Amino acid sequence: TERTFSILKPDATRRNLTGAVNAVIEAAGLRIVGQRRIRMSREQAEKFYEVHKERPFFGELVEFMTSGPVVVQVLEGENAVAKYREVMGATNPAQAAEGTIRKQFAESVGENTVHGSDSVDNAKAEIAQFFTDDQIA
Ligand code: ATP
Ligand code: MG
């Protein structure tokens, strides 16, 4: 069993979609073992998306991620990292497969409802940025 890190982004909390997204996550067999609603600081968002800092959309991305509350989560299950990426769908909702979270809910490539770690190593680092061990059960 494996863990991945998930964020329900500000467009999800704004539209009251946290329960609907969690239903898709749980139906896919992923267990929500950590969950907290927070307001991300600019510093947290810049650190979290540091790999994208040279990209043209970086400023917009940090603005968006700090524009409202987010729900940070730890998901657990067999092949959780790859499974959650599959459940999320493509970054651009126009390219996302039927039934995926982004196909069902995302509004644009920028406001795309969810984040999921792209590797087991990144999942560990991202979980550690937002959770202590006693907050996961
Ligand atoms: P995430 O890291 O959020 O799970 P991802 O791995 O599918 O998404 P990345 O390439 O890591 O996609 O991009 C990180 C985030 O940056 C995207 O989820 C999206 O919110 C934003 N982003 C990516 N490409 C664009 C773009 N062309 N224009 C605006 N925002 C973008
Ligand atoms: Mg990514």
From TrEMBL:
The gene is ndk. Homotetramer. ATP binds at residues 9, 57, 85, 91, 102, 112. The keyword Cell inner membrane does not apply. The keyword Phosphoprotein applies. The active site is at residue 115. GO terms for cellular component: cytoplasm. PANTHER family: NUCLEOSIDE DIPHOSPHATE KINASE, NUCLEOSIDE DIPHOSPHATE KINASE DDB_G0292928-RELATED. GO terms for molecular function: ATP binding; metal ion binding; nucleoside diphosphate kinase activity. Belongs to the NDK family. HAMAP family: NDP_kinase (MF_00451). It catalyses: a 2'-deoxyribonucleoside 5'-diphosphate + ATP = a 2'-deoxyribonucleoside 5'-triphosphate + ADP; a ribonucleoside 5'-diphosphate + ATP = a ribonucleoside 5'-triphosphate + ADP. Its cofactor is Mg(2+). It is found in: Cytoplasm. This is Nucleoside diphosphate kinase.
